[in-house]
Amino acid sequence: MDIGKEQLIGIFDKMLRIRAFEQKAKELFAGQKIPGFVHLYAGEEAVAAGVCANLTVKDYITSTHRGHGHLIAKGGRLNEMMAELFGKSGGYCKGKGGSMHIADVELGILGANGIVGAGQPIAAGAAFASKYLKTDAVTVCFFGDGASNRGTFHESLNLASAFKLPVIFVCENNQYGISNHQSTAMNILDISDRAKSYGIPGLTVDGNDPLAVFEAAKEAVDRARKGDGPSLLECKTWRHHGHFEGDSSFYKKPEDQTAWLSKDPIPRFEKKLIELGILDGPKVAALHAEVDKELAEAIDFAERSPYPAVSELLTDVLA
Amino acid sequence: MKTVTVGLIANPASGKDIRRLVAYGTVFDNQEKISMVRRMLLGLLVGGTDRVLYMPDYNGLVVRALDGLGSKYSYVDGILRAKDQDGPGLRVEMIPLEVTATQDDSRRAAALMAQAKVDCLLVLGGDGTSRQVAKGASNTPILAISTGTNNVFPWLMEATTAGLAAAAVAAGRAGPIAVYRAKRLVIRVNGEYADQALVDAAVSRKAWVGSRAVWEPCDLTEAVFTRGEPWNLGLASIIGLWDPVGPTDPYGAYVLFSPVKANLMAPIAPGLIRPVGVELAGRLLAGQTRVVGPGPLTVALDGERELEVGASDQATIEVDLQGPLVVDPHLALAGATADRFFGQPALVGRLDRALTTENSLNNLGGQGNFGREDS
Question: FRET partner for B219 with CA separation of 20 to 30 A, picked from A180, B244, B267, B346?
Answer without folding.
Answer: B244
